[in-house]
Amino acid sequence: MDILKNVLMALYIIASIVLIVVVLMQSGKTAGLSGSIAGGAETFFGKNKARTYDAKLKRLTKYAAVVFIVLSLVLVLLQ
């Protein structure tokens, strides 16, 4: 049982570091007037919106958050 806790704790630490890095790598929503005009045009005219760098980071953030929450609940239940 101690080995399982140690493995889960290591995965928990890795998931938390990944979550922090992915959130910090994302661009902000308010980039001033020029960023809002360019961003609006990009989302309106962009055909490959799901393939952009920001979209991939957003998807990775969702997965990392789910893994982090599930590992948190499992570690609490094991104690």
TrEMBL record:
Membrane topology (UniProt): Multi-pass membrane protein
Main location: membrane
One Pfam family hit: SecG
Gene Ontology terms, MF aspect: protein-transporting ATPase activity
Any GO BP annotation: intracellular protein transmembrane transport
TM stretches of this protein: 6-25, 60-78
InterPro entries: SecG
Protein name: Protein-export membrane protein SecG
A GO-annotated cellular component: plasma membrane
Location relative to the cell: Cell membrane
Family the UniProt entry places it in: Belongs to the SecG family.
Keyword DNA repair belongs to the record: no
Protein keywords: Cell membrane, Membrane, Protein transport, Translocation, Transmembrane, Transmembrane helix, Transport
Known role: Involved in protein export. Participates in an early event of protein translocation.
Species lineage: Bacteria, Bacillati, Bacillota, Clostridia, Thermoanaerobacterales
